[in-house]
Structures are given as C-alpha cells and as structure tokens.
Design brief:
Layout lengths: L3 H13 L18 E5 L2 E4 L4 E4 L15 H13 L8 H13 L5 E5 L2 H16 L3 E6 L11 E3 L4 E3 L6 H4 L2 E5 L3 H11 L3 E6 L15 H12 L2 E5 L12 H6 L5 E4 L10 E5 L1 H4 L18 H16 L2 H23 L4 E3 L4 E5 L32 H5 L3 H14 L2 E2 L8 E2 L6 H15 L1
Parallel strand pairs: 3-15, 5-8, 5-9, 9-10, 10-11
Antiparallel strand pairs: 1-2, 2-3, 4-12, 6-7, 11-12, 13-14, 14-16
This protein binds pyridoxal-5'-phosphate (PLP).
C-alpha cells in the first residue's frame, strides 16, 4: 500500500494541530490514514487504499458509512430548513419520546453535544440531587475529557490522570477496580454518606470490553440504594449497541438512576444526553436549579440523524445482523488464537470485539468461551481472564500497537488505535468482510 498522501497530510497537520490530530487516540503510529470517504463497512484513505473499517467513528456509526435513505433524507431536509435556531424544535421532543419508550429507566432526557458533556452534566446532577460530592468511578473506565473522572490511583490516593487538573478536584473522586465487590463495599463503609453516585460503564468498553462478573451490577445497585447514592450508567458507547434499543442496562437487567448517552444517539452527528426519572432530571435548570445549558444542545440535524437511525434500527433487523457478525468475528478469532496464541483472550459482546494480548493468560484452551469471554465462573480460564482495567492495561500493549495494528492495516483491516479500544461491527459489514478479516488475523498469527 502507498501512504504518501496520508504521510504528507500528517506532516502538514503537525504544524497546525497539536500531535497532528483533534482527538488523541487518532494519532496512530507512525502516522494515521487520512480518510477521504466511507463506503458501507469500508473507508477509503487519501491514497485510495480501501480498508474494512472496525473503527466506525469509535462507535457512533451503527449503520456504517452510507446512511439509509430515510436517515439521509431527514438530515438533508432538516439542514435545508436552517442549521439551528437556539429555540425548541419538534424533532428533539420526538427523539426524547423514542428513547423514553425504549429505555425503561429513562423518563426524561436533557440533550447535550457529546459524551463528555453528558457525563459532566450527570455528575453535577447527582451531586445536586444528593447534596454530596464524591463520585465513585472504575479504574480503566472512561467518561470523556472531564475533570471529575480523569482521575487515577485508588480509593486511598486518587490523583489527576492529566496535568491541568487540580488535586483538589481528584479528591472528590474515588477510583475502584471494576468487578471487585469487596473494595467498593469498603469504600461505601468509609465514605457512604459522602457518595453522590457510582459512575460506571456497564462493561469496560474503553478497556477492551471487560464484562461484569455475575451479580456485580446488582451489588452496585444494592450498595447505592443502601447508602442513598445514585447509580449512573455511562452508556455513551454501549447505548443502542449492546442490548439493542434497551441498551446494556436492558441486557444486564439492572436499572440505573441516571444514564448517559452519546455516539449512536446522534446517528453520526455530535449529540449526547443524560436520561433518568423526572424526579431527578427536573433538577436541571430551568425546571430546577442545577445549572445546565448549551448553544448547540438538541441540534436539529443531530436529532434528526439520531431519531431516524434508531427508527431504522427498530424497523429492520439491524441488531440481529450486527450481533451475528460480531459473534462470527469473536468466534473466528477465538479459534485462530486457540491454535496459535492460546494465552490471548477475545473480549466483547453484541457488535463489539477485541483481542487482548493477555500477558498472563492461561494457555489451557479447553474451556475457552466460544465467542468471547463471558466471565463464566466455572470456565477454567475464569481466574485469569481480564476482570479489571489494569488486567488489560498490563497486556502486551506494545506488540498490539507496533506490530499487530500496522500489519492488519497493511492487509486492509482498520482496527481501533490501541489495546484498549473496542472494535465495532456495523450494519453495513458483510459475511465476506468477516471472512476477509479472519484471514488477516490468521496471516498475522501464522
Ligand atoms: N463515556 C464513554 C463510555 C465513552 O466511551 C466516551 C468516548 O469514547 C465518552 C464518555 C466521551 O464521549 P465524547 O468523546 O463524545 O466526549
């Protein structure tokens, strides 16, 4: 493959954009493919190279790169009426009604413009509702570029994970390991009266898709109820992808107090939302006094794209298709590594997938989960499969980034940037795409 144009564009970008990109994860080594256009489940870069695309915008593109006619028509007609107004429109009411109909924990929504804005607003709302300040988050979870959650360390020593965030902010955040019931019990025993909420992804989507162990979310639910804290599910990534239109909370059968959405809810355009019962949501201004606002919030074009995307998913067999391809992909990769790299672990569910180059993974493949780790306690690999963010971060990250991803790219398979980010299957992917992808995995592990 020739990459001269991408290389030259990156050279230019480095002079005017820090790191040459507008979102850090895009700066793949040695330089990223600059994308010229999408085509179904594929993208074509500035040099004319075609890739099967599993980045899918990092999750928003449930339907792939070609919007179905109904979505395209809604976007175009909304846009031609005028881009935005700073006044309410019917389309935002319709999208809120659609979400409230399908996600049982949601009665009302406040739309914003991104996942980050959604989690910022949800944290403020939880603090405003409870009158408390501390937020519990999961190590290895990600809730966007916001001060309250860019926190590393542990419950005894939380510290900002980025320069620019005051230590005093981090002191209100308590990071705990995902899937660890004892630690969070201790945290509630010590800080229970100060905890406004537990903010967690239903599965660690930003750490390869580590699944919850049985009973974990129920335990979080009980702890929050017992101590008067809110359970906040960050479904920015899993919303309308895992568990279909009910989202991951429907799949796992747990009802959070608040849910954050973004990515698919905007159908490929910038949108996010906080959802929950009216009793809590009505604390947002102007109904209540927890301040929340935004010039572009409920942007008509994003609302139209989101609504028509979700309607399309509701009326077609989108989830059957993407989940089946996801299963084929995870199953196929599981078989390939069982023979060639048995320590590695396949993670993911529904239309998400990831191969983790697990450093200390068991090489006993007799009980490997057929289509990705399910955290099944009687599986022989259970004790060694990733349970926490740290388990994935300790994997062979360099091998993934320096060898695996670049070689897959040369074979025409575009994967997310690093060991941590999930891959996404879209409705536009085909059986042939999956076969070709599995061939490339085989080739790498030959
Ligand atoms: N929360 C989760 C679970 C995410 O995966 C992301 C982004 O990937 C965010 C929040 C932040 O969303 P955004 O990048 O739209 O600000």
């Amino acid at each position: 493959m020739n990459h001269d144009s991408s290389r030259d564009l990156y050279d230019r970008a480095l002079s005017v954009l820090p790191g040459g990109v507008n979102s850090s994860v895009r700066a793949t080594r040695p330089y990223p493919a600059f994308i010229e256009r999408g085509d179904g489940g594929h993208v074509i870069d500035a040099d004319g190279n075609r890739y099967i695309d599993y980045v899918m915008g990092y999750g928003p593109l449930l339907l792939g790169h070609d919007l179905p006619e109904s979505v395209r028509a809604a976007v175009q007609s909304t846009m031609s009426d005028g881009p935005m107004y700073g006044a309410p429109t019917e389309i935002e009411v319709e999208l809120a009604e659609f979400v409230a109909r399908h996600v049982p924990s949601v009665e009302m929504l406040r739309f914003v413009n991104s996942g980050t804005e959604a989690t910022v607003s949800a944290v403020r709302l939880a603090r405003g509702y409870t009158g408390r300040e501390k937020i519990v988050v999961m190590q290895g979870g990600y809730h966007g570029a916001q001060e309250s959650t860019l926190v590393a360390g542990d419950s005894a020593n939380p510290r900002p994970s980025s320069p620019g965030i005051p230590q005093s902010f981090a002191e209100h955040t308590i990071p705990v390991p995902f899937n660890d019931m004892e630690t969070i019990e201790d945290v509630f025993a010590t800080h229970g009266e100060d905890i406004a909420g537990v903010l967690t992804e239903p599965l660690l989507g930003n750490t390869a898709g580590v699944m919850p162990i049985e009973g974990y979310h129920e335990h979080l639910r009980d702890l929050c109820d017992d101590h008067g804290a809110l359970l906040i599910f960050d479904e920015v990534m899993t919303g309308f992808r895992v568990g279909g239109l009910q989202c991951a909370q429907g799949k796992f059968g747990v009802t959070p107090d608040l849910t954050t959405f973004a990515k698919i809810i905007g159908g490929g355009f910038p949108a996010g939302a906080v959802g929950g019962p009216a009793e809590i949501l009505e604390l947002f201004t102007p109904a209540g006094d927890v301040f929340q606002s935004g010039t572009f919030s409920g942007h008509p074009v994003a609302m139209a794209a989101g609504l028509e995307t979700l309607r399309y998913a509701a009326e077609n067999d989108v989830y059957d298709h993407v989940n089946q391809l996801g299963e084929e992909l995870r199953g196929g990769i599981t078989d390939i590594v069982a023979e060639r790299a048995p320590g590695y672990t396949v993670l993911g569910t529904d239309s998400m997938f990831k191969l983790v180059f697990t450093r200390a993974g068991s090489t006993d493949v007799s009980e490997t989960c057929g289509a990705g780790c399910r955290q099944t306690p009687d599986c022989e690999r259970f004790a060694r499969c990733p349970k926490t963010g740290a388990d994935v971060e300790n994997a062979e990250t360099d091998r993934w980034e320096r060898l695996f991803r670049p070689e897959m790219k040369e074979q025409g398979i575009l994967l997310t940037a690093n060991q941590l980010e999930s891959g996404f299957v879209s409705d536009a992917h085909t059986d042939e795409d999956i076969e070709e992808t599995l061939e490339a995995y085989k080739e790498f592990f030959e």
